[in-house]
UniProtKB/TrEMBL annotation:
The keyword Cytoplasm does not apply. SMART domains: CY (SM00043). Keywords: Protease inhibitor, Signal, Thiol protease inhibitor. SUPFAM superfamilies: Cystatin/monellin. It comes from Arabidopsis thaliana x Arabidopsis arenosa. CDD domains: CY. Pfam families: SQAPI. This is Cystatin domain. Coiled coil: none annotated.
Length: 117
């Protein structure tokens, strides 16, 4: 009887373990993953959003140039840590670090931080 119970328990738990491992994509749920295609339109949209929000808050006039690199992390939404190249008011291109959390189900984004590197 005990052996049957163990087999049944194994059959129930094994698929659950596989699903949980699959969610994390090899690094576990919540692990950071490098963005492979920084030119992806969704990534570029998040970077442009970060610059627009920073410009509103700081009254600067940064202009998006490109996403240099970044990572994503699934937390309560998708957290983007991006290194963004932007042109300042004097025409000089500098790199900035932006953290944006996007919650697709709420159709919302929030700029968590933005700083010059």
């Amino acid at each position: 009887m005990m052996m049957k119970s163990l087999i049944c328990l194994s059959l129930i738990l094994l698929p659950l373990v596989s699903v949980v491992e699959g969610l994390g994509g090899g690094g576990g749920l919540g692990s950071r993953k490098p963005i492979k295609n920084v030119s992806d339109p969704d990534v570029v949209a998040v970077a442009k959003y970060a610059i627009e929000e920073h410009n509103k808050e700081s009254k600067e006039k940064l202009v998006f140039v490109k996403v240099v690199e970044g990572t994503t992390q699934v937390v309560s939404g998708t957290k983007y840590d991006l290194k963004i190249a932007a042109r300042d008011g004097g025409g000089k291109i500098k790199n900035y670090e932006a953290v944006v959390v996007e919650k697709l189900w709420l159709h919302s984004k929030s700029l968590e931080s933005f700083k010059a590197l």
